[in-house]
Design goal:
Layout lengths: L17 H12 L1 H14 L6 E5 L5 H10 L4 E6 L2 H9 L9 E4 L12 E7 L8 H10 L1 E12 L5 E3 L3 H14 L5 H11 L2 E13 L2 H7 L2 H10 L5 H16 L4 E13 L2
Parallel strand pairs: 1-2, 1-4, 2-3, 4-5
Antiparallel strand pairs: 5-8, 6-8, 7-8
Helix pairs in contact: 5-7
């Protein structure tokens, strides 16, 4: 068993790889993420005819939107390590609109020449990579001078759930953060941008708040997280059961609360 926290790095080997596509469909349908995506598109400074790289394109929602902005004369490439995701992205291509191209590739070793793109973007992908600094350097390498790089990532140490006993909640939240390959992705970005030689770096926090327990269970994969925490010996079954009961009671009473902070970070490659 694995969760959406750590499973995206190995989607094709997952027992139900299609569930990851469904999960992305859920995320892309939420107003919070729609607004954050719009802001990240604007930060790229794309013009008709621009060449754009989308790293970790998933099921192609962002690459398709970027292709529409770049227009018929533009070139948008989406890369992903998952054949399942790339197949889903290809299905979204429409002959009536500009179509992105898709490439099976690892973000740490981009198969593109230096300065190939006017803008490079990634969204909630670096949390699933082992070396954010190496990926940012690759992103900078394939960006032309004066080109834009935009990254949107959560910092899972900012994950909040209520209600629950403080000591139990801390065990669950720390387990979730540490279960993600790079749970501190958000706070790492400014240093990684600087290390990659990018200029004019801006950092904009965006806080996701969910008060609907049913939605939070889906977005944060709460039931799987509890199961894995028990299996890992982080919680005993009684603690997990009692905590889940507290959450259910709060949800039924309209008192459940959860939040997570994301960071939209932008930078410009030096001329």
């Amino acid at each position: 068993m694995d969760s959406f926290a750590s499973g995206f790095a190995g989607v094709d080997a997952a027992g139900d790889s299609g569930s990851f596509v469904t999960y992305l469909d859920l995320i892309h349908s939420m107003p919070f993420f729609k607004d954050c995506k719009r802001r990240s598109y604007e930060a790229l400074g794309i013009r008709p005819g621009s060449a754009v790289l989308e790293i970790g394109c998933g099921n192609g929602v962002d690459a398709t939107a970027l292709a529409g902005i770049a227009g018929p004369g533009g070139r948008v490439i989406g890369i992903d390590v998952s054949r399942t995701m790339l197949a889903s992205a290809q299905e979204k291509n429409s002959p009536k609109s500009p179509r992105p191209g898709y490439v099976l590739s690892d973000a740490s070793h981009l198969a593109f020449a230096d300065g190939s793109f006017d803008a490079v973007r990634t969204d909630r992908v670096l949390q699933h990579t082992s070396d954010i600094f190496a990926v940012l350097k690759e992103m900078a390498r394939v960006t032309r001078p004066s080109g834009k790089i935009v990254v949107f990532e959560p910092d899972w140490e900012t994950f909040v759930l209520w209600p629950g006993k403080r000591e139990v909640a801390r065990k669950i939240l720390n387990f979730w953060c540490d279960h993600i390959p790079n749970g501190w992705a958000g706070r790492t970005l400014p240093a990684a941008f600087s290390d990659a030689g990018l200029e004019g770096v801006t950092v904009t926090p965006r806080c996701l708040v969910i008060t609907d327990l049913a939605l939070a269970r889906r977005v944060f994969d709460l039931e799987t997280t509890l199961t894995l925490a028990v299996e890992a010996g982080v919680l005993d079954s009684r603690e997990a059961e009692f905590w889940a009961g507290e959450q259910a009671q709060a949800g039924a009473a309209g008192r459940f609360f959860s939040s997570l902070t994301f960071y939209l970070v932008t930078g410009t490659k030096r001329e």
